[in-house]
Amino acid sequence: MVRITKQEFKEMFNSKIYSIYAHSINEATNEQLQIVLSSVIKDIIAKYWVDNRLSTNKEVYYFSIEFLIGRQLKSNLLNLQIEEVIKEGLEDMGIDLDDLICAEKDPALGNGGLGRLAACFLDSMASLNISGHGYGIRYKYGLFEQKFINGYQVEVPDNWLLHEQYSWESIRPNKAVVVKFGGEVYLEEDNGRLKAKHHGYIPVMAMPYDIPIIGYDNDFINTLRLFKAEILNRDFGINTLYANTFTGSYEQALKYKYYTEEISQVLYPNDSNHAGKLLRLKQEYFLVSSGIQDIINKYRKNKFDILDFPKHIAIHINDTHPTLCIPELMRILLDEEGLSWEEAFDITKNTISYTNHTIMAEAMEKWPVDMMKELLPRIYMIIEEINKRYVEYLNHKYNDNEKIRRMSIICDNNINMANLSIIGSYSVNGVAKLHTEILKKEVLSDFYEDDPGKFNNKTNGIAHRRWLISCNEDLSNLITEHIGNIWKKDTEELKRLEDYKENRNFLKKLECIKIKNKTKLANFIAEEYGICINPESIYDVQIKRLHAYKRQLLNVLHILHLYHELLENPELDIVPRTFIFGAKAAPGYHLAKCIIKLINSVAEKINNDKSINNKIKVVFIENYGVSLAEKIIPSTDVSEQISTATKEASGTGNMKFMMNGAITLATLDGANVEIYDQVGEENIVIFGLKASQVLNYNKYGGYSSLDLYNSNFKIKRVVDDLVNGFIPNISKEGRVIYDSLITYNDEYFVLRDFENYIEAQSKIDTLYRDKEKWSKMCLINIANSGIFSSDRTISEYAKDIWFRGC
Ligand code: OX2
Fold first, then answer.
1. Ligand 1 site, CB within 6 A
2. Which residues does the record list as N6-(pyridoxal phosphate)lysine (modified residue) (predicted)?
3. The whole model's pTM is what?
């Protein structure tokens, strides 16, 4: 047990503030006090952290281009179980712990679900005593900060490392490695063997910064290692190694500095979308090469036989962004360890496992051959050889040219990263049952038929410590009062809450907690946005990235529909509703930005229309991210999970809402299907096209949005609103959206699902009127959410993938 007394803590804190800032507590800002507190906590855990790093068990390395870890202070105190002591110690010194929790910067080193999943997985690996470490990039600028100006999204740089420092990190210069870009590769004779020699490359230093990942109540600490790109000599001298490229002048040295530092400068702000830029490819290789070299360096120190590599090491790639792990590991095994091709490929294939997170064509990474060849000549040679051998195998087995084109790594001068990931790994998994089935039967069916044993499902999960225990303390305490503490380590225990489903007293308490959380959020919204919302209204929430397939548009069209109904009949009997949105759009995603402007304009109009008597309110929360999610989710009544069926691979927000007792309003997409299976049809509201129907439309056609528009009055009314001036200031944006729906035949079936969605929404209205019944539904959702803890997901990864056969 990590133990510390109040007195010891106060002494450490006092001496730390002098050593860091040379002044007393009274002069310090909350930001400074938070930095001091993090530093004290790092001292407290130092011993455990070092011990853990010396582990000789099989180690898992989780490579991800994004980690959306959120604020760390509260969650670290919770996991160390020292929150009380620290709180009281600070109180004695006149400091409020909550102020310091809020003063911490929220590192936005990810876009959305993929990056947040990686963070939840780290939490679970540490909490389950699995030596599992993250490798990522220490972006100088994270995801942009979103501001609304006249209802438009404006992006502002996210300068989270204001003083070049993050309070939880420790720099490890002794572990820095060099990553090589460009140059030429020749096969040269070396001891009777052809060896690849790399000349004229540009060396980039990868400087590791370590963040401790603290397990829950188990003294187990893993590491998230983020690499920063730097010049080779920190003193900024000229080095002969790159003299060929940068010929030694001061100007060249500056160019070199720019070239290197640019690599970890900024996170690409795309979610589920492949940017295809050279700099992005540099980032991907930088991450991969730094991480693989780091693993190999540690492995060599341990003096294990290189042929036993897969016995000691599991490397997991989070989507295809780190897929170059495959040729990079091959490169080291071939060129540095001197193994044969067969040995090297065998080791690589038995070490690497791959998760696919999307079936969306625009997210599938494909790199032009020329770009890869020029930037990473040796890596390209290896990819080409893997491809050549694989095509030989396919030819031999199938003799079907179309199939071979679909399955090969290199096709039409592009490198298909998903295919490379499958071919170079021993396990491929999807992130929800439906998603995995679609991978097997549709998108990756050739590979599935070729090697069915490689495919498996791992339904996503969430860290219940952050997403329930820490963000919703009242609910967490209520649960513990009734079923004890065990659920915190074993969320299946939550099922025992079902014993209380007829207990009116318990249901009332649940309702009171929700109202308390809703009031807190109402106060926050009043302070931040000057909008007054009613805690007695239904909080109907859609928070996630803005994307056409997620269909925020369907939500706002329904709001317009309700508004028309209210205008026609101001006495209309509906339960007051507050529609809450939070979403960032990729800066270059025009349609998404138009939808933001639309929602803001609709909000402006409705919120200022006195004639509807505050029956509906619309709030678009600016700059949505992890910390805001922690505030919003505990106060939500209705969780909007309304993507076009087949498009959302899993979703994880859906699980967070469920665990906090919101009712899901959903299509049968991604993990919504599994939420439905858990709670049963009375405790969820489902609508819309099924996956099979969408797949059929996509294959055989048969959908005309124009016909629907012409034949359905309700649809026509809201679609016309986009272009007839009913909503002020959206003339251009309204037209773009209108065209997407009518001219381009509504790719995401918004209008097709509209009637059904209206019905589902009116069902929500009816259900909410019976408060006790609603509360019972909430309870059943909470009680059955245990399966969506990422502890369950990670146990499955460990058993079926990383440690299988161990
Ligand atoms: C997201 C998926 O869109 C989402 O459905 C899923 O829940 C999440 O990953 C975690 O698995 N980029 N982001 C995703 O996929 C890609 C690619």
1. 112-114, 117, 271-272, 319, 357-358, 363, 431, 460, 648-652, 670
2. 656
3. 0.98
